[in-house]
Input
Amino acid sequence: MNDRRPSSDPAARAAQLADAAGTGDRRSLARLLTAVENRTPVAEHALRRLYPRAGAAHLVGITGPPGAGKSTLVAALIAELRRADRTVAVVAVDPSSPITGGALLGDRVRMQAYASDDGVFIRSMASRGHAGGLAATSTAAAAVLAAAGFDIVLLETVGTGQSEVEVAAAADTTVVLEAPEMGDEVQAIKAGLLEVADIVVVNKGDRPGAQRTAAQLRAMLSPSGGRDPTDPARPAPKRPDVLVTTASTGEGIPELLAVLDRERAHGAGGANQAARRARAEAQIRAVLVERLWDRLARPGHQSVAAEAIDAVAAHDLDPYAAADRLLAELGTQPDPGPAEEQP
Amino acid sequence: MNDRRPSSDPAARAAQLADAAGTGDRRSLARLLTAVENRTPVAEHALRRLYPRAGAAHLVGITGPPGAGKSTLVAALIAELRRADRTVAVVAVDPSSPITGGALLGDRVRMQAYASDDGVFIRSMASRGHAGGLAATSTAAAAVLAAAGFDIVLLETVGTGQSEVEVAAAADTTVVLEAPEMGDEVQAIKAGLLEVADIVVVNKGDRPGAQRTAAQLRAMLSPSGGRDPTDPARPAPKRPDVLVTTASTGEGIPELLAVLDRERAHGAGGANQAARRARAEAQIRAVLVERLWDRLARPGHQSVAAEAIDAVAAHDLDPYAAADRLLAELGTQPDPGPAEEQP
Output
């Protein structure tokens, strides 16, 4: 039992949790994800240890407006994957509040059917309070789950904000869900999402208007319809598949999984390289700013940082001057000489 | 005419535009906002020039789920402010896409009644593609409008994502809009927003259920209902006012403005200081990471940065190691010695 006692050293604790998670210990996995969400020192050590193994899973973003049926689709995809004996993890970015206890719980309850199935792991994350950004946190959580050996990691978000688009865009493959006959404003929100979609799914296919909505989307996404009206010469970057599903009955789910697998095979050839680089860049940027901020929180710099923030808040100093002052405080040259410009 | 010719020097151009915008030249103001949105060198110079004057306006965030009537409420607030001869600027973060041309245009058209009124300025911004983050860009735009002398700057966002919550939280006063009788999932989204609300408005007050929704919200936000169920000992941080309006008829709008003014007067005494510091910190952080990234894009460092991104994308390097490598590349000490820890 002795070697299972939690270590108080973050690096040793991370090694314990990461190694246990890698052999299927769900409690260790859950603890690692909590560490990732809270950005504890354990999280950094564990992510560093797990990162080399994190490239194997297919990372699928699933997003769309409220009411399109994302959770039902995720449940249907899980069932389909399990029928084929494939493992799946879900990171659900849950917009519900700790104050009200999470009104989306009903959707999650449906997934508790898999509580005793080691091939399924579901984790809800708050959509707020991620210092390094929601995309950075959920990408790190997905990396932990990928390293733990799940074949597919689904990242489910409500697709209406910038950060949700970032989360969706950080996936290898992005599925945007729509429901037929939504109001005008929801249609507008949808438009921004369509730009990051690899696959568009019109769910609730048993409702009137589903096929018409799919046809409208196909027309909108066709080579002419997809062009930027402000610059018609610029071609549309891609043309996503448009599928119709009825997640509540499973209708269309095998077809969706087939398209996902095809995208994965296609992406392995290099088409997903841009998404992987963008994800890597976002992760590095998030760590960079946290590293600087951590250093500014140390006793030697803390008062300078606090004074800079106060001065900007009082409009006595602009944010650019403040940032340059803090970079100088940390010993970086704000304006490197021309010698540094040489390759 | 000679001195009105646009300068090709960013600093001189910024001075031209900032000074003209400060004397009420709307075209210069519009150009400055475009520069802010595109993060051009002109934007930085202009923001630095304008920042000392940017603290005077009352910055009000207005957010809520799609369909709650945000644009109608903003239009009603504008009308009420103009009746009192007060000036107002609006930054509307518009989720519509360049691809479809902006389906929310109908709401904006209503505001064109003010196209020839110098006391009103309305600007829509895309909700995507802001390198420094949506909150940083819209806060900078609000600072430009505040410096241009508007009494109130309204920041209108669709309140469902993390970045929208950040935008709302960056305001001096945050108004969260609800509509009566919304579905369960929308209620859940609302919950996250309520935490940042200074004022909650149930709009569409002429619909059945409006007063009941307001009563439910008041109960939810009451001292006991507002506690964190995961930690009942922690008191609710604040208790926002709950108002009922019918923005389409103007019902309740004078009352809302009175509460806004009361919040402003109250905030001047220090209650808004936390919001101002959080806004300042977010702005400084956004500039910090951009400064580092700009330096990494220079010829001397570019290949190192590109290699680090490729290595992280290939899972040959973890993001923490990559960030530390890039900080070392820029000449910062990744692990400062204990000497630096001394004050």
